[in-house]
Amino acid sequence: MQRIYEPENLMEAELLLGMLASEGVTATLQGRDLIGGTGELPALGLLGLAVADDHARYARELIDAYNAASPFEGDEPDSYPDVLEC
């Protein structure tokens, strides 16, 4: 197993686990149980996605494509959360 990515939070981790699974890559989330210790433990590096050695390269490519993606033009919402329009 290789640790291939450190998601920012649990939501991103779960999203990436689902995306990888849909592409046939079995991944495990390391550190899920440590989230409750935030404040006592360092905030960064708790979560990590790990895959089998033979799927590591493909999984990294998928995650890189996910991180490089942007919305289609015209697909952006009219307003954004936490933005006050006056």
Automatic annotation (TrEMBL):
Record-annotated DUF2007 domain positions: 1-65
Pfam families per UniProt: DUF2007
Classification via InterPro entries: DUF2007
Name of the protein in question: DUF2007 domain-containing protein
Organism of origin: Pseudomonas lundensis
